[in-house]
Hints:
Blueprint: H1 3-6, H2 11-22, H3 31-45, E1 52-57, E2 62-68, E3 71-78, H4 82-89, H5 97-111, E4 123-127, H6 129-140, E5 150-152, H7 154-162, H8 168-177, H9 185-198, E6 203-206, H10 211-227
Parallel strand pairs: 1-4, 4-6
Antiparallel strand pairs: 1-2, 2-3, 5-6
Amino acid sequence: ATSSLRDLDNRDEVVTAVKDRLGIYIDVISEKKEAEFGFKAVREMDLTTYDGLLVDLGGGSCEITYFKNKTIVTDDTMPFGSNKAYKEYVSGTFPNETERLEIKNRTLSELKKLSIRYSSYDDLFGNGGTVYTIKLMLISLGFIGEDEIFVPVSKIDELLDDIKDDTEENRQKIIDVAPGRLYNFIPGVLIIKTILEYYNVKYLHFCSGQLDDGVLYELLENESSKDKPVDPSSQNEFSN
């Protein structure tokens, strides 16, 4: 579990209740571990460049990772996601112009607190539900083909312009693709757009590797290491 439980005041009570009633233990992972899992999945499944940024935008937080030579250099977490943006700033179904600006300014404020400083990065790899839905929406609206794995950032502006007004027609465009994201989709896109602009990104890459894939890769790596023979010379007399 990530920020959905991590941010709760009664997190431990929830974990205990699930364990007692269902026999299932929930591992609430840290922000740092969440970023590591996400990067592990993308590195194995999606990276087409050696350097860049990885952004995993969720409902309550956004993990941003700077990598070089396909290795994490810095990662940090912005405590602001698509659900928080909707709940805190949007009064209707879609944010109006004032609310869009408020979401942008809040995102900029959070970005300035991060250890990943302002610079220019050609490529940003995105995973999480918002980025995946961006791809589906661009395909549905005819802006890109189904096989495209990255787009110039100008496509995000085209998408926002196309569904700018809070009309029944525009609401239906989202419902047809991702009905569960009717309310938080545009706030999420605004956060992604602000991140792209802040870091002067040229291309947004759509990733298939997700957090759960990263968890599985780590489990497999741990199992594999257990199967490796132990070198006796590496053990001392007290080793078991």
